[in-house]
Amino acid sequence: MRFLVLLIVLAFPVMDVLATLRFARWTGVPALAWMLASTVAGLLLLRHERLGFRTRTLAALRGDRPLMRGLFDSGRKVLAALLLILPGILSDLIALVLLLLPINVGTPFAPQTVGAGFGMRRGDALDGDYRRVD
């Protein structure tokens, strides 16, 4: 079983590069240009996601956004960036599918369940009576 998994893991990059070379011959775009463009796109996505992850984590710590939603979205984008960095068109297509999936898409003002850190937001006021107890 381990041999089969190892064979699949090692065969994917080879098949990916062969598919890229065949696609480059079919379209007329040089394979090196295709691989370089996808690598640059992956690096830019990874850099942008690093900054976005920081802001989403800080927003979750303040209670403005749910934590797991931001972590899942960041993980999906980091995986897509790593697949874009790998040379090959098959990994690029998998990365694009990951980026285009409508996961974690919701309206930002939709009501959310009240849990740890999600009840109060900045600017919300508590309404009640004041009474001093001595």
Briefly say what this structure is:
The protein has helices spanning 2-27, 31-62, 67-85, 89-100.
Proportion of strand residues: under 5%
Mass-distribution shape: elongated
N-C termini distance: 73 Å
Which structural class matches the secondary elements?
A: mainly alpha
- Give the mean pLDDT: 81
Rg, alpha carbons: 23 Å
Helix content: 55-70%
| DSSP, total strands | 0
The secondary-structure element order is HHHH
Ranges where pLDDT stays below 50 over 5 or more residues in a row are 111-118
Q: What composes the largest sheet?
A: none
| Tally of individual helices | 4
Structure, explained:
- It is a single chain.
- By secondary structure, the chain is an all-alpha fold.
- Helices cover 66% and strands 0% of the residues.
- It is built from four helices and no strands.
- The protein has helices at residues 2-27, 31-62, 67-85, 89-100.
- Helix 2 (31-62) runs antiparallel to helix 3.
- The termini are far apart.
